[in-house]
Amino acid sequence: MDGSTRMPQTADEIAAHLTEAVHEHRVLPGMKLSEDEVGEIYGVGRTVVRQALRHLAHDGLLRIERNRGAFVAKPTVKEAREVFEARALLEPSIARAAAERATPAGIATLESHIREEHVALAAGEPGRALKLSGHFHVEIARIADQATIEGFIRQLVSRSSLVIALYWRRRNAMCESHAHHALVDALRRHDGQAAEDLMKGHLLDLLSQLDLRDHSAELLSLREALAR
Amino acid sequence: MDGSTRMPQTADEIAAHLTEAVHEHRVLPGMKLSEDEVGEIYGVGRTVVRQALRHLAHDGLLRIERNRGAFVAKPTVKEAREVFEARALLEPSIARAAAERATPAGIATLESHIREEHVALAAGEPGRALKLSGHFHVEIARIADQATIEGFIRQLVSRSSLVIALYWRRRNAMCESHAHHALVDALRRHDGQAAEDLMKGHLLDLLSQLDLRDHSAELLSLREALAR
DNA sequence: CTGGGCAAGATTGTATGCAATCTACTGCCT
DNA sequence: AGGCAGTAGATTGCATACAATCTTGCCCAG
What GO terms are given for molecular function (chains A, B) (predicted)? Predict the structure, then answer.
């Protein structure tokens, strides 16, 4: 702990802090976030905590059940597919726009993100690397100068963290840093078509790493098994 | 007023009610929503009102200024363009998907929406017609069975109401019901390509009805004029 | 011994009181 | 007369107390 870093105080700061924790897989789907508990951690009253929790719920990261509390969302297989279909719809076009408008400063930011991601991986912090990897996608929307869509992508990246926590196949390290490198190259060349294609392929890659088989059939058979 | 209809009580209900009022242009950009005032209207405490207001702020309908209050947002020209660029990215694809999955029930819902829109126009309620017209677009996303993207489109339609309130050129009635009719026809024929093209054209039509000239240059010249 | 009902504890939902901040008005000074 | 400062009013920010609801464990009846 670093005593010099101030704890988040406002509702938005706490919401951002909790979101980071979810992105880093330090807070996992299904976990309960009690108002009193969270309030004690940050040293604020329940009013502020409730604002933050409702904020996250609105982003789809939490599910608030009346008189029961706030729980980290557990996206169903259908929701997981929807998230990646939405990303497939938005991000390739945004990557193209980003390639057309990319500035040296923006590209430098992306490169620093990739560097930090490598550092985190080397330091044995896969959660941090995952968070940075997600932020890479948001940063591309920012470079495209599309604030509205950037907000949507931020939400989708957040939910992707939950999806990855639930449905990721292998536990080994990320294999995708190569894709991010290639994207930065395309942006640097202002090659919109290449950026669009690379992003599309990258998202399909991610999707193929997920185990999104429909478990509803198994649940039904479970019901049968228990009925015997 | 109908005494049998219960006033909204919960934060979500109040948020939905306020959203409708914005959609119908009964609450206009720049208007202030005081906590006490809103609370008195619905007969609830400020706590619930604050939740509702923050909800709308998160959707981009309100702008909450610290210690000043909540004001209906006034999208800039840039934000207005972004909203329609996002819609152009999402809705044509969603219309295609909707055409492929459309059921008789869904189509009946859309037709009833169009009918209600005509009734509202005939009854001299252009605000209500506008609201229904927006809901038509959300309904298509619902037919496409894409809950995540439906949420995004709901947000975009909301913001479009603000954009229309600020930048719509003519005051005369909507001219677009024909486009909605054609879209329903395409959906009924399960003609995805036609639905996609019609939606794209419809959105371009809407955009062309807006006066999104950049006023920043005029502001600069005003500054010059005042400096003399 | 098992199953249902009941009561106690815990947690969230809401209202309200107090503190902090902003706005606007008034009065003084130049 | 005009401008600025100070103050009073109003509005939001936050914490907390109380009410409603849910969960859980216990006890009693069958």
Answer: DNA binding; DNA-binding transcription factor activity
